[in-house]
């Protein structure tokens, strides 16, 4: 029995969500245009000491990016080369998600800054 392209796409999306959520490294997906966080895994929430609801949609994004040392140059580098990295161990790669550009952001081991200033 042949499955429809829509069913295959749904299964692939579920698989990718499971992988993203299951990764033990802090990871997030951000919109490079406005720098808003679109998705974060539990490890990212723990690393930045914020709840997912505080981060998604842009409300907590500016404070997180500032604390991570992610500024305009980071986003410009991402736009130009598709990859950006900070000395503090923040790495982003530009990918297409459902036909739109997003940034897959990871906090690399040993590079995570302190987030006590963000703790509520």
What is the gist of this entry?
The protein has helices spanning 5-22, 42-48, 52-55, 61-68, 72-81; strands at residues 27-30, 37-40, 83-85, 90-97, 100-107. It is an alpha+beta fold and 120 residues long. The chain has a single domain, classed as PAS domain (Beta-Lactamase).
What does this structure look like?
- This protein is α+β, with helices and mostly antiparallel strands and 120 residues long.
- The chain has a single domain (25-118), classed as PAS domain (Beta-Lactamase, 2-Layer Sandwich), CATH 3.30.450.20.
- It has 5 helices and 5 strands; from the N terminus they run H-E-E-H-H-H-H-E-E-E.
- The chain has a 5-stranded antiparallel β-sheet with strand order 2-1-5-4-3.
- The radius of gyration is 15 Å and the shape is globular.
- Residues 114-120 have low confidence and may be disordered.
